[in-house]
Structures are given as structure tokens and as C-alpha cells.
């Protein structure tokens, strides 16, 4: 297999508290290995505490979103520079919950990814089709469109991570089968290579959507799946560690 960074990313969404940070970070720090990155994305108010707890361990951390401008009168938002200052290595952008609930379009997601890169934060860019898209045979068209908006703005040397998260699999307990996910990941690599040939092999692509301790290994065994973006199961540190060990 190609030499790509492998990683498991915990997306806590709007769950957890300081106690969860203080309980889980020491356990994660003990388990984190150089061969697979372990990344925690807590709610933004906890990033400072997670940063302190992760200090000098192998655990990386990041935000779940970022503003599409560098600064300004944007109540309730934060910039990529602020994340960089806090030591965030990553920021999730374009999660389906942001696209859906906050009406983020492909252009917005593309700008957010570019803001991250300019600030030295690696964007974890989420793409994914709805069940309606899939059932009407539009999965590849929708994904190609989402990807194009993002890649058009990306410098050739940019470092970014892609996360394939079928919307119908997020929080539903209905994960894609390893074969379904592999097919899409191979398609995404092909699309990446159309923009920059090296990207097809070099870009880390995570699968997300109802990854649990008992299905992670079969998903992560697929050749084009480099790890996972984990929602619900990441709130239980033992489940998260089990998933991490499967990667
Ligand atoms: C997610 O929110 O990115 C996600 C994949 O959630 P879950 O694992 O709960 O499906």
C-alpha cells in the first residue's frame, strides 16, 4: 500500500465536558503510537484544556469547524489562526451537520479549507452523498462536485485530509460496508489524481459513518481507507481505543 498517514479522528460534536477531557486524554496519550495518528476534536470551549492535557503526548487535536474569514465582526466564530495559536493540528470542515444545519455550500467549505491551509492547520474535508443521491445513482456526481469546489482552490503543495462520510451512515448505526466504502474511496483517489497526479496516492482518506469497535477493522483493512472519523463511538474512550488499535 502507498505510504500515507493513517489516522483515527474523534469528533465529539456537541457532547462531553471537562471531566471527559480529563479522563480520556491521559488514556489516549498512553495509547498513541507514531504509526497511526490519534486526533481529538472536542467542542471548541475545551480546546485549551485538551491542548494542555495533550501536551507532549502523541495525541493531536483539532476543531470541528472554522470561520471563512481571517477576522471580523463574526460573533460566535473563530479563525484558523486562533486554532493554530492553540496548537490545533487539524480542523474538520464541511461536516454534513454544518452543510445541512448551517447551509454551508461547497464554496464555503472550500474557502474554509483554504483558510486552514493558510494558517498552517490541516483541514479534514468532509464529503458525502445523501441516501436520496445514492438511490438515484448520483453518488459519484455529487462527490465529484463537492471535491471539485475544494480542489480548485487548493495549492499543489497543500496538505489536507479527506473524509468520506455518507450522510445516511452518520449517527444511524448503518455503516457503509467495507466494499461500498472502498469503491467510493477508489473513486475519490481517481478524482484527486485528475487535479494533481500525486494526490491520488498521497492524500489520506478517512471513512466516517457509524464506525464502531466491531466494524472498524474490516473497514480499515480496505486498501484505500486510511482510518476513520468517529462520532458517537469516540465519546467512550475504551471504544475509541479499540477503534484506534484496529487502524
Ligand atoms: C461523524 O459525525 O463524523 C460521524 C461519523 O458520526 P458517527 O460515527 O456517530 O456516525
Please provide a written account of the structure.
Pathway: Carbohydrate metabolism; erythritol degradation; Carbohydrate biosynthesis; gluconeogenesis; Carbohydrate degradation; glycolysis; D-glyceraldehyde 3-phosphate from glycerone phosphate: step 1/1. Its main location: cytoplasm. It is an enzyme of class 5 (isomerase). The chain has 247 residues and is an alpha/beta fold. The chain has one domain: TIM Barrel (Alpha-Beta Barrel). 42% of the residues lie in helices and 15% in strands. It contains 11 helices and 8 strands. Strands 1-2-3-4-5-6-7-8 form an 8-stranded parallel β-barrel, surrounded by 6 helices. Helix 1 packs parallel to helix 2, helix 5 packs across helix 7 and helix 7 runs parallel beside helix 8. The longest helix has 18 residues. The chain is globular. The two termini are 14 Å apart. Bound molecules: phosphoenolpyruvate. The site of phosphoenolpyruvate has 13 residues, from strand 8.
Amino acid at each position: 500500500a502507498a505510504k500515507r498517514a493513517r489516522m483515527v479522528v474523534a469528533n465529539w460534536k456537541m457532547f462531553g465536558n471537562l471531566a471527559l477531557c480529563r479522563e480520556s486524554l491521559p488514556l489516549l496519550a498512553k495509547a498513541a503510537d507514531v504509526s497511526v495518528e490519534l486526533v481529538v476534536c472536542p467542542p471548541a470551549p475545551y480546546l485549551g484544556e485538551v491542548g494542555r492535557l495533550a501536551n507532549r503526548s502523541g495525541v493531536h487535536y483539532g476543531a470541528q469547524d472554522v470561520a471563512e474569514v481571517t477576522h471580523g465582526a463574526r460573533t460566535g466564530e473563530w479563525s484558523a489562526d486562533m486554532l493554530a495559536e492553540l496548537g490545533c493540528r487539524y480542523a474538520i470542515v464541511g461536516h454534513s451537520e454544518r452543510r445541512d444545519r448551517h447551509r454551508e455550500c461547497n464554496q464555503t467549505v472550500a474557502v474554509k479549507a483554504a483558510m486552514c491551509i493558510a494558517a498552517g492547520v490541516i483541514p479534514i474535508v468532509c464529503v458525502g452523498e445523501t441516501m436520496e443521491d445514492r438511490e438515484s445513482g448520483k453518488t459519484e456526481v455529487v462527490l465529484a462536485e463537492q471535491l471539485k469546489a475544494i480542489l480548485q482552490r487548493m495549492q499543489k503543495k497543500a496538505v489536507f485530509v479527506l473524509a468520506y462520510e455518507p450522510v445516511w451512515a452518520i449517527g444511524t448505526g448503518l455503516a457503509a460496508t467495507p466494499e461500498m466504502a472502498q469503491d467510493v474511496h477508489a473513486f475519490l483517489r481517481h478524482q484527486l489524481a485528475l487535479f494533481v497526479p500525486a494526490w491520488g496516492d498521497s492524500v489520506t482518506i478517512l471513512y466516517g459513518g457509524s464506525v464502531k469497535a466491531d466494524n472498524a477493522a474490516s473497514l480499515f483493512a480496505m486498501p484505500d481507507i486510511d482510518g476513520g472519523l468517529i462520532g458517537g463511538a469516540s465519546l467512550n474512550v475504551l471504544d475509541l481505543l479499540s477503534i484506534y488499535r484496529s487502524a
